[in-house]
Write a structure and sequence with these properties.
Length: about 725
């Protein structure tokens, strides 16, 4: 793997090829996706590295003091050799990254392979392709947060800790001096907390950016309006708290702070700056001066950072890890937006050039990140198929539909609903034989019938409904997508990775994401009650889904798995989609086992127990069975989450256990959601809006199904990050 190093003696920066770090207990190995460059801390270190020995000594008087003490204790020669050895060694750069978990060490089982995480720590969250990071310096990245934004979590936590130290309250007024990256982040955090903000910076562009980020006003320090704006905003009282987020040797920030401050106001120092406090001025107002130490309690405590010993929340509410979690929650809600702040994302291959340009003062961006792999696995990077939805057009009139396939399921569960929908015109039905096509046309009122789906797709229809046998789905879906049709296909979307890849290629090449798979269970009224019952519980869940599919009759085409795919591959998407629906999370890994009696049959291989781990920490257990008694109801779902338990019995009834109560609900009839699903699909096509299930979710569910079969073959856990198309 590769890692950036700096020789502090001569300032040389190199992209080195080094050994992969070893996995240790209490931590995880992380494949880095993005690493953030701290223009303050790292920029200073890079510039210092290029200084002469005298320049280094002037820049770091704290280290000079240590050298003098060492000379007194160990002598000049010994100290000189020790200092030169330390200077002439390679040191890492970087301390804030995002990536995915590669391996989990003993004692860090709260994380799982493939999980998206943000990491902190000098010497841990390095500019390196793979990092070992102790668990207290790692937090999960919520769904919806961009990985390039999550890479700045540590830096954002520095601003967050400054805010914690201020103890500001709703409605107070803050002044942020220094509108670099930390200052800009702090402006957003303060604004999100209901604090009025004034910003100060020497650079006009940064002042303008702060106002865009929510500051009441942002001015240069020499601006004559500064005092007047402060007095106006505070009704003449003065600033409640001033944050110094600037660096350098000027005492200007300290002098400005006391002029703007109210009586008994506060000052929080975040940046490394000169603090020559004017005694009289600070004494007369009795100003409270505080320091914010890095990204929170736990920093510089090896028992916390390396030993994994957390502080009890009753004694230390906000540790560095809990600050990191808080930052990511703000990003998830949109209250902290890194997009206006990140000036550029550079390929890691160019790291030497970028860091050298920073040291030479050529870069004016306040935030830069490295992208560590231009080919980051498509499954782990932010999916972008759904982004194509922005180009969809609405249909002014009724939706004209082609039905490709009209077998028993389509004729009993789908076509009757479409025939009754006033927004649908049944334009053409396509089947393998002329007689079956004619029968469907007469039965449901299609305008025409044919036996060629290729010819039908050339026509003027808006949408294609595909209900043929499984092995044809990927081919037909790809053709319909390329023909610019909206597509509804019965499960499965594909029976192998090659088929799924062809669909993906069709969607991307044609910029047509109007695809829906018939995962109807989530549209059932009772399943939606399950979802609603869990909506206020933002915690991972355990889901047990038992499906008794029953034995197949001799001669069933399902038994020809080499040709049509297995029965499990055809049906499992229904149940994995329920897991995705309830968790609103992506699957990370799959582990499957099947029944293996002494004399095994193909039907035995469709008796599976599958465990799926999800990005939010949830677990889905699917028991897919064929060998039980035929009188057993087909489906049963149990969900356990945050003190609530839910039992769904074959879409006939459900029980919700919450607190001391058990709420029993009984359906009028078994409704697995087909009617509601088709209504929403037609509505989406007509309006030109996104399909009811996101296209990325459809692909995830299909991958989870195929990964189950792969897990059976390998006899091990399959991570979807290693199993993507």
């Amino acid at each position: 793997m590769r890692q950036i190093s700096q020789n502090y003696k001569n300032g040389t920066i190199n992209l080195e090829t080094v050994n992969t770090p070893k996995l240790k207990s209490g931590g995880i190995l992380v494949q880095t996706h993005f690493s953030a460059i701290s223009m303050g801390t790292e920029g200073m270190k890079i510039r210092e590295g290029g200084m002469s020995m005298l320049g280094k000594a002037r820049a770091r008087p704290d280290q000079v003091k240590k050298v003098i003490e060492s000379v007194q204790q160990q002598g000049l020669k010994s100290t000189y050799e020790k200092v030169m050895n330390k200077l002439d060694s390679l040191t890492p750069l970087g301390y804030s990254i995002s990536g995915t978990v590669l391996e989990v060490g003993k004692g860090a089982e709260e994380f799982q392979v493939g999980q998206r995480v943000a990491c902190a720590g000098v010497g841990y969250a390095n500019h390196a392709e793979i990092n070992f990071v102790p668990k207290n310096l790692v937090v999960p990245v919520p769904k919806g947060v961009r990985m390039e934004d999550a890479a700045f979590t540590t830096i954002c936590s520095i601003a967050m800790q400054g805010f914690r130290q201020s103890e500001m309250q709703l409605g107070e007024t803050a002044c942020v001096i220094g509108l670099g990256l930390i200052g800009q982040i702090l402006v957003q955090i303060l604004t999100a907390s209901g604090i009025n903000v004034i910003g100060i910076d020497l650079v006009q562009e940064r002042c303008e950016l702060a106002e865009l980020n929510g500051a009441f006003c942002a001015l240069q320090p020499q601006d004559e309006r500064l005092m007047q704006k402060s007095q106006t905003l505070t009704d003449g009282l003065g600033i409640d708290c001033t944050f110094i987020a600037a660096g350098g040797s000027s005492n200007g920030p300290v002098e400005i702070a006391h002029k703007l401050a109210r009586d008994r106001g506060r000052l929080v120092d975040i940046g490394k700056t000169k603090l020559d406090l004017p005694w009289n001025d600070y004494y007369e107002k009795e100003l409270d001066v505080r320091f914010a130490r890095s990204y929170g309690p736990g920093r510089y405590d090896s028992n916390y950072e390396e030993g994994g010993i957390d502080y009890p929340v009753g004694y230390v509410r906000w540790t560095e890890r809990r600050n990191m979690q808080s930052v990511l929650r703000l990003m998830e809600k949109g209250s902290l937006d890194m997009r206006p702040l990140i000036g550029s994302v550079e390929p890691f291959d160019d790291a030497e050039r970028v860091l050298k340009s920073i040291g030479e003062g050529e870069r004016k961006d306040i935030a830069i990140a490295f992208r560590h792999n231009d080919d980051i696995d498509a499954f782990q990077s932010s999916p972008n198929r759904s982004a194509l939805n922005s180009s969809l057009d609405s249909i002014g009139d009724k939706v004209k539909v082609i039905a490709i396939g009209a077998g028993n399921y389509a004729s009993s569960m789908l076509l009757p609903h479409l025939a009754k929908n006033p927004n649908v015109i049944l334009h053409e039905v396509v089947t393998a034989t002329s007689l079956s096509a004619m029968n469907a046309m007469n039965k449901f009122g299609f305008s025409r019938s044919s036996t060629s789906f290729e010819d039908a797709l050339l026509g003027e229809a808006d949408a294609a409904i595909i209900t043929t046998r499984h092995q044809s789905h990927a081919l037909m879906v790809s053709a319909a997508i390329k023909a610019n049709k909206a597509v509804y296909v019965e499960k499965p979307l594909a029976i192998d990775l090659e088929g799924l890849a062809s669909v993906d290629d069709a969607v991307r090449s044609s910029a047509n994401p109007r695809l829906m798979v018939g995962f109807n269970r989530r549209f059932s009224p009772l399943m939606r009650k399950v979802k609603d019952s869990l909506s206020e519980i933002n915690l991972p869940m355990v889901m047990n889904y038992r499906v008794h599919a029953g034995q197949l009759e001799e001669g069933s085409w399902y038994l020809k798995s080499d040709e049509h795919g297995s029965r499990f591959e055809g049906e499992a998407g229904h149940f994995f989609d329920v897991f995705a629906f309830l968790t609103n999370s992506r699957p990370l890994s799959v582990f499957a086992r099947c029944l293996r009696p002494p004399n095994i049959s193909k039907d035995d291989l469709d008796n599976l127990v599958v465990t799926v781990q999800y990005e939010d920490g949830s677990i889905g257990n699917l028991l897919y069975l064929t060998q039980g008694n035929k009188k057993v109801p087909k489906e049963s779902l149990e969900v356990f989450c945050g003190g609530t338990s839910i039992q769904l019995h074959n879409f006939e009834s459900m029980k919700i256990y919450s607190g001391d109560k058990c709420n029993k609900i009984k359906a009028r009839s078994i409704d697995k959601g087909q009617k509601n699903e088709l209504l929403e699909v037609v509505s989406a096509i007509k309006a030109g809006s996104q399909m009811p299930i996101s296209i990325d979710c459809l692909f995830d569910t299909t991958l989870a199904t195929l990964a189950s079969t792969e897990s059976l073959r390998r006899g091990e856990v399959v991570c979807l990050s290693d199993f993507s198309i």
